[in-house]
Amino acid sequence: MCQSTADMDEIIEVCGLEARGLTEGSSSPPVIETQENVHEFVGLVSVEEQRGETPGREDLTPDPLEMELNPSIEKTQDQKTFVRSPHQFIQMLLKLEESRSMQKQVKVLQKQQNQVLKEKIHLQSEHSKAEENAQRFREYEERRKEAMVHFQITLNEIEAQMEQHNSHNTKLRQENMELAEKLKKLIKQYELREEHTDNMFKHKELQQQLMDDKLQRTAELMRKVEEKQQREREFLLKNATESRHKCEMMKEQEHQLKQQLTLYMDKFEEFQTTLAKSNEVFTTFRQEMEKVS
Fold first, then answer.
1. Are 91 and 243 spatial neighbours (Cβ–Cβ below 8 Å)?
2. Coiled-coil segments, which residues (predicted)?
3. 233 phi and psi, to 5 degrees?
4. How far apart are CA 30 and CA 42, in angstroms?
5. What angle do CA 49, 53, 58 make, to 5 degrees?
6. In sequence order, what are the residues at sequence separation of 6 or more whose Cβ sits closer than 8 angstroms to the Cβ of residue 92?
7. pTM of the prediction?
């Protein structure tokens, strides 16, 4: 009996070390010295779990596994019973913490997916703007070509008129020559502008190609992220199923241990009764011996 008590105290101390930070969020383990302190610790954990005040869980959504475990903890607190296997209690706490960590990972992945979706929408918007700019540039190019054709026709007509009026005075010829020079300069300016416009159009095409490549890479990245999330969902679902199965097995073991404990307590009471009777017989015998002496 003493050896069992010593083993129980040692396990309780280990339980306190494993459960540190769950109730106070500190780096020091809570002091759990007796079974009464363990009752208080279990009650504190169950109350904080019910109120959602467990440190480090303010931004987490309720865990289905945790919601399934809470009724068992509450039932244990209401009945003021103590988990006779602290090792099983530690395993339950570790499984609970593992489930919370998995939910945090799912939230991080969801945030990454939302960020990728935002980037995709932004790139699609930039792609649409680039297409509109390209369309406006093509329309401007058509109008410029029409103006050049019209200008060339006008220039040809002017040159024809200059040839027809070759007999005009020198002043008029000089003015026509100056006008032709101006027109040539204007044509040169148009050619330079056309070259600049072609360069701009090539630059826009290059930007459009870069945007298309970036959009394709983003789509590929998003596909990989979705595949990774699907694999992790399957992994988390499998772990949750295994944890639920283990929890049911632990509940069954707890029930069996309680039955064994009840049987041992009945036997202990019988032993106490027998011991009391033996003490009475011994006392009576000693009194008789004293009377005889």
1. no
2. 155-231
3. -60, -45
4. 12
5. 110
6. 69, 247, 250
7. 0.24
Whose tokens are 């009026």? That residue is 165
Q: String of b and e for 17-42 (b: at least 16 CB within 10 Å)?
A: ebbebbbeeeeebbebeeeeebbebb
CA 39 remoteness from chain centre: 35
Per-residue pLDDT of the chain (293 residues; tens, 9 = 90+): 444 445 445 544 444 444 444 334 443 434 444 444 444 544 554 444 444 444 444 444 444 444 444 444 444 444 434 445 778 888 888 888 888 888 888 899 989 989 989 888 988 888 888 888 888 888 888 888 888 888 888 888 887 776 676 666 677 778 878 888 888 998 999 889 888 888 998 998 999 899 999 899 998 999 998 998 898 889 988 888 888 888 889 888 888 888 888 888 888 888 888 888 888 888 888 888 887 76
Give 261-265's long-range contacts (Cβ < 8 A, gap of 24+).
261/84
Picking from 245, 236, 241, 231, the residue whose alpha carbon sits closest to that of residue 101 is 236
Q: Scan for tokens 């200008």, then name that residue.
A: 151
Where are the domains positioned within the chain? Answer: 110-231
CA distance 290 to 283: 11
